[in-house]
Design brief:
With 393 residues, the protein is α+β, with helices and mostly antiparallel strands. 35% of the residues lie in helices and 31% in strands. It is built from twelve helices and 22 strands. Helix 1 runs parallel beside helix 5 (103-115), helix 1 (12-21) runs parallel beside helix 9 and helix 9 (296-313) packs antiparallel against helix 10. The longest helix has 27 residues, at 320-346. Bound molecules: flavin-adenine dinucleotide.
Length: 393
């Protein structure tokens, strides 16, 4: 079976790319090892403004809007010190800095959109087993429940996650950093409204993010060293709630109740190459970031916008150089936000602490610097591909 584009991996990245390509006349296939809609995903995702624009342009936002809580303000602070950064939607000239949406709803909306169209052929459950490249295309062997299928594609997208088979089959090296950290993700019920404020409070070994969810609830993402996370998991719900209240403080009033706790080991990975002949690595397969600055999916969605533009502008010979330079720039911005910010907060030498607080206060009172920081975090800095621009309504 021959296709113009074969996407390996139908998670949030592969699924979004398939939705973005379905308006073209290209022959597209999507292969995923997991059956449709069977896996529960407890992650709670902060989408930046650029990601909101992309999903709106793809017609996915309609299905997500009732599950999405707007972020009106971001408040970043450092536990035990006085500096803080506040970003407000009105100061950045937008109606929301971003939205917080359960990953389960994003997956569902993408899968429902793909089920309604006939441009993308779906193979799931189906696992990539072999990949060989020729001058003009790539040959794949994909294992389904009943047979091994041979697929041929002009472009292959590896969106198959941190432990990517595509990357492994092509012997692409990775740079991995062992951070020995994990995250607890849960939902906290509040006694009062969060007023659309997203809090991120750093401490010496991690951070607690309390992000607005629909209703008087927050997405709680607590990252720390593995042992500290294990200790937190041993606590019963009421002791965990008390510890959370003590560590986070009372900015959101008294915390009422927490939901089920889920843990995620944290990885940092960067692929040495993201394009090899006909194959493009995307999402976690290309770069897995720490979730502290909520950048991983946002970065991947911005890459999708540029990739789709390069392919649709010139389907026979996409301008890979344009794509690569965009990717490099976006990746370095996102990596800076997700890896260096936490690192800065983990240094507890007094000079660094003082400098950090001066930096935070400086950023907080300087409108131009703050706007620049906000636009970077929102994914709106620089010249944007079409899918990241606001939809004309
Ligand atoms: C706790 C936590 C919170 C996060 N919060 C945020 C946030 O707020 N904002 C943000 O932007 N990002 C966030 N992220 C990051 C974000 O979740 C990831 O960047 C994103 O989910 C990556 O998606 P992906 O599709 O690349 O990978 P995955 O979700 O891992 O999907 C890979 C897919 O490939 C399939 N697959 C694997 N191997 C094969 C194979 N051999 N053959 C066929 N299919 C295969 C799998 O079945 C799967 O469906 C967070 C991450 C964590 C852990």
């Amino acid at each position: 079976m021959q296709y113009d584009i074969i996407i390996i991996g139908g998670g949030m990245v592969g699924g979004s790319l398939a939705c973005a390509l379905q308006e073209t006349t290209l022959r597209i296939a999507l292969v995923d090892a997991a059956p449709l809609n069977t896996r529960h995903d407890s992650r709670l995702i902060a989408l930046n403004y650029g990601s909101y624009c992309l999903l709106d342009n793809l017609g996915i936002w309609q299905a997500l809007s009732s599950h999405a809580a707007p972020i009106q303000q971001v408040h970043i602070s450092d536990r035990g010190h006085f500096g803080k950064i506040r970003l407000k939607a009105e100061e950045a000239g937008v109606h929301a800095l971003g939205y917080v949406v359960p990953a389960q709803d994003i997956n569902m909306a993408l899968n429902n959109a793909l089920a309604k169209q006939n441009r993308v052929t779906m193979f799931r459950p189906a696992k990539l087993k072999q990949l060989t490249q020729t001058e003009t295309h790539a040959n794949l062997i994909v294992e389904t429940e009943t047979a091994n299928l041979e697929l041929e594609g002009k472009i292959i997208i590896g969106a198959d996650g941190t432990h990517s088979t595509v990357r492994e089959l092509l012997n692409i090296e990775t740079q991995t950093t062992q951070c020995e950290q994990s995250a607890i993700v849960t939902i906290t019920e509040l006694q009062r409204s969060h007023q659309g404020i997203a809090y991120e409070r750093f401490h010496s070994s991690g951070a607690i993010a309390m992000l607005p969810l629909v209703g008087d609830r927050t997405a709680t993402i607590w990252t720390d060293d593995n042992q500290a996370i294990q200790d937190l998991l041993q606590l019963d719900d009421s002791s965990f709630l008390k510890t959370l209240q003590t560590q986070f403080g009372y900015r959101l009033g008294r915390l009422k109740q927490i939901g089920q706790r889920h843990t995620y080991p944290l990885h940092m990975l960067k692929s040495a190459q993201t394009i090899k002949q006909h194959v493009v690595l995307m999402g976690n397969a290309a770069h897995t970031l720490l979730p502290l600055a909520a950048q991983g999916l946002n970065l991947a969605l911005s890459e999708i916008a540029m990739l789709v533009q390069c392919i649709t502008d010139n389907p026979d010979e996409p301008n890979w150089q344009t794509y690569l330079s965009w990717q490099e720039k976006q990746q370095s911005n996102s990596t800076r936000l997700s890896h260096q910010l936490p690192k800065l907060f983990s240094e507890d030498f007094s000079l660094v602490t003082i400098a950090r607080q001066i930096g935070m206060i400086g950023l907080d009172i300087c409108p131009a610097a703050k706007k620049h920081f906000a636009w970077q975090a929102m994914g709106k800095a620089g010249q944007l591909p079409r899918l990241l621009l606001e939809k004309v309504k």
